[in-house]
Known about the structure:
The protein is α+β, with helices and mostly antiparallel strands. It is about 30% helix and about 25% strand. One magnesium ion binds next to strand 4 and strand 5.
Amino acid sequence: xxxxxxxxxxxxxxxxxxxxxxxxxxKRVIEPGISTLELDKIAYDIIKKNKAYPTFLGYNxxxxxxxxxxxxxxxxxxxxxDTILKEGxxxxxxxxxxxxxxxxxxxxTYPVGKIAPEIENLLKVTEKxxxxxxxxxxxxxxxxxxxxxxxxxxxxxxxxIVRQYGGHGVGHQMHEDPFLFNYRTNSTIIIKKNCAxxxxxxxxxxxxxxxxxxxxxxxxxxxxxxxAHFEHTVVATEEGPLITTKxx
Length: 248
Ligand code: MG
Ligand code: MG
């Protein structure tokens, strides 16, 4: 778990601000009729205009700047001109920006037009789980507190918890130690002062289980029920949790 210097935290906030600008625009443009490839182009342009690099582009061979995962897709959906959003869909947009060698990583699930009440509730619950986790990003406290806070929100709402994926340390690399589970694991890891972690609950309307499609990227729920994904990059400062992936 790498502690970040004051300068590194400043740069992470600048990277995170660019990620937040992308999300601000996603919220504005997502509507029935737009393709996920169009969203990818918009994100790419914002990141480049702000002199950053889209962290996902080329990462382990990933072909685009955002992951766009629709409905039963959990994470790592590949943008496509053939994936046209329609009324009642949800789309999870995950985006990273690297600015002067530091990374911001944040995901949000957006409704497309009007969505069913139970899906709207899934979005609310997953966002709530994210912020419950963020509150526990306190220096010298157990990382397990973050996992437990997320798990408790999910259990109370009786939604599925994705087990194979989770949060992670973040900084000069998108994925650094430690891995952060979205449920209790009896971890003994202690949160270090000024460490940065991407907290990212992925919760499902149905079962916990997920699998990867034949494209080797797209992760979907086994029961084809919708999944939501909310993520922020957070630094555990002495003054409390600092979300870097929000507008400065
Ligand atoms: Mg992400
Ligand atoms: Mg992440």
